[in-house]
């Protein structure tokens, strides 16, 4: 098998979630790790066996070329297997970071909840989490996102520059908090 095929196959699994910079760990909180493990367990122990049973039943019904249960089941099986491979890869490189153990609490690091004010005077609050935990609606941003990169290592009162697709914007750090131990 050619090396280019293997490289392309590995990249295909990257489509299942946000990409990580090459060679980095998958920094994640304990809760985020548990969610990934729970999803993997559910897919492997519940979803996949159920679909395999349907495909097996459908295969026994004769002509597979026009059997919707069989065709859809095989497609769903490929999707589940792709997601299982992706989760396994992410869990292999996962490094749990407990934000409550952060000793330097006056600077922004992974797990910090930061309130900042943008140049329009709007106050916003974000929590810096792992790439697999990011949820903008809940105020959780990935540690590799532009906003997190701008805020990392800042202190209260610092003005940082956000380089966003819409242009550069100044942000003033209002407060930094971490979960209690």
Question: Main attributes?
Answer:
five-stranded mixed beta sheet, disordered N terminus, 181 residues, Chitinase A, domain 3, Helix Hairpins, 7 strands, 4 helices, 2 domains, 40% helix, 21% strand, elongated, two-stranded parallel ribbon, alpha/beta
How many domains is the backbone divided into?
A: 2
- The low-confidence parts are 1-14
Dominant shape: elongated
The averaged pLDDT comes out at: 88
Report how far the terminal alpha carbons are from each other: 51 Å
Q: How would a textbook summarize the main sheet? A: 5 strands, mixed
- SS-derived structural category: alpha/beta
Strand order of the largest sheet: 5-4-3-7-6
* CATH A-level architecture of the largest domain: Roll
Which helices and strands occur, and which strands form pairs?
Elements: H1 3-13, E1 26-28, H2 30-59, H3 68-92, E2 94-96, E3 113-117, E4 123-129, E5 140-142, H4 146-151, E6 159-164, E7 167-177
Parallel strand pairs: 1-2, 4-5
Antiparallel strand pairs: 3-4, 3-7, 6-7
Note down, in words, how this protein is organized.
This protein is of the alpha/beta class and 181 residues long. Helices cover 40% and strands 21% of the residues. The protein folds into two domains: 24-96, Transcription elongation factor, GreA/GreB, N-terminal domain (Helix Hairpins, Orthogonal Bundle), CATH 1.10.287.180; 99-177, Roll (Chitinase A, domain 3). It contains four helices and seven strands. The strands form two sheets. A five-stranded mixed sheet has the order 5-4-3-7-6. Helix 2 runs antiparallel to helix 3. It is elongated. Mean pLDDT is 88; it is low at 1-14.
């Amino acid at each position: 098998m050619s090396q280019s095929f293997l490289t392309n196959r590995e990249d295909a699994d990257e489509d299942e979630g946000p990409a990580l910079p090459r060679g980095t760990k998958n920094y994640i909180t304990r809760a985020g790790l548990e969610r990934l493990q729970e999803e993997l367990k559910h897919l492997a122990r519940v979803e996949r066996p159920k679909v395999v049973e349907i495909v097996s039943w459908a295969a026994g019904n004769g002509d597979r070329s026009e059997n919707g249960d069989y065709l859809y089941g095989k497609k769903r099986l490929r999707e589940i297997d792709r997601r299982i491979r992706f989760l396994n890869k992410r869990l292999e490189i996962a490094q749990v970071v407990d934000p409550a153990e952060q000793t330097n609490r006056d600077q922004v690091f992974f797990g910090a909840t930061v309130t900042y004010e943008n140049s329009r005077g709007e106050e916003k609050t974000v929590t810096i989490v792992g790439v697999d935990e990011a949820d903008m609606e809940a105020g959780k941003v990935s540690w590799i996102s532009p906003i997190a990169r701008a805020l990392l290592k800042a202190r209260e009162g610092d003005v940082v520059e956000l380089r966003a697709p819409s242009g550069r914007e100044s942000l003033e750090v209002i407060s930094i908090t971490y979960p209690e131990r």
